[in-house]
Amino acid sequence: MAAGDATLSQYDWHTYPDVPLTPILTVALNSFQELGYHGTTVRAIAAGANLTMPTLYYHYGNKEGILFALLDIALDDFYTHIDLCLADADDNPLHRFENYITTVALHYTHRRDLAMLHDEYRFLGDTLREKYLTKRNLVQTKLEDLLQDGITAGIFDDKDPHFTARVLLGMLGGILDWYNTNGPLTPTEIADRYTHYAVRLVTKHTEA
Amino acid sequence: MAAGDATLSQYDWHTYPDVPLTPILTVALNSFQELGYHGTTVRAIAAGANLTMPTLYYHYGNKEGILFALLDIALDDFYTHIDLCLADADDNPLHRFENYITTVALHYTHRRDLAMLHDEYRFLGDTLREKYLTKRNLVQTKLEDLLQDGITAGIFDDKDPHFTARVLLGMLGGILDWYNTNGPLTPTEIADRYTHYAVRLVTKHTEA
């Protein structure tokens, strides 16, 4: 199960307790954001964390290992919230869809720093990149399933859940382009708006 | 006016003739994509373009100048298409909105390589970053205007064009996450689908 479970399961899925990061990962996260993956040196990470290079290599292997560890922690936290939000919904496909969209939007606000790292996955080597993408792809396939459930139930008007899930996740990912904690809207308000848009996007424009 | 005008104005806005790039910019674009901005050296760009370092510095100043030149060329091409697509629409706010969404979607498919560079703008220094963002922000403000026109005309059901424009542009930007030229859908088919979704997102779910 996801790494954050022990901490998070005590909480409602709308809450985002701090993700525990080792000093190495905290320093690396800041550096990757500021300078990019290639602009960050292992030496600078070790210095920033007040650790020796051998200690760093012992724990994470190399810079790629550090990036992967951060990406994996972000995914574990993401999936923990996803599991909880679906467990909290009844069987109505619309309600399950709404909770899912809401939790993705909350991830992109509350976990912005970790979520931004996704852009750097392309610098992982083949093995770890494949491992990361396989795990992350569940965000997409789970949403496809929820869309299909709504289509089957006659609630959603959509012909291509695979494509539509991409569209929706792209829309949500756009939050990272503009969100900052000083903005006028809270994460909850932002998530509510995106959920409203997402429902519009997949439901029929009916002549009732 | 935009730099690409002389070439493009002979064409329909649905067409995307190759953007002429100097050898330096062609090499730099490939390198920025493969290695990121910080992973790219000016020396490697000069070598790849078969030019001396002084020649490169003479034309672009430094690596930042090269990145800015590419971002600026991408924007000029983008705005040329935007101008043409709006000139091609009648006064109906819905039609203008549809053309706008379509041209943004076409930009993110036909111009994927250049559009991907946007992620690197954060590495520009203050002056050039501000200059780039000011120019790029017109994509957002123009869409806000189009949304406001549709709201005023009673066609769109939306209360916050600023926010909604962000949502729509985020949705369209998501194309960069998954589009590749080997996929089953053409740029035109993709643009049609996104335009359909965008119209759904901003129009009333009416009881006609």
TrEMBL record, chains A, B:
Gene3D superfamilies for the chain: Homeodomain-like, Tetracycline Repressor, domain 2
Keywords linked to the UniProt accession: DNA-binding
InterPro entries membership: Homeodomain-like_sf, HTH-type_TetR-like_transc_reg, HTH_TetR, KstR2_TetR_C, Tet_transcr_reg_TetR-rel_C_sf
MF-aspect GO terms: DNA-binding transcription factor activity; transcription cis-regulatory region binding
SUPFAM superfamilies: Homeodomain-like, Tetracyclin repressor-like, C-terminal domain
Domain (HTH tetR-type): residue spans on this chain: 18-78
Protein name as catalogued: HTH tetR-type domain-containing protein
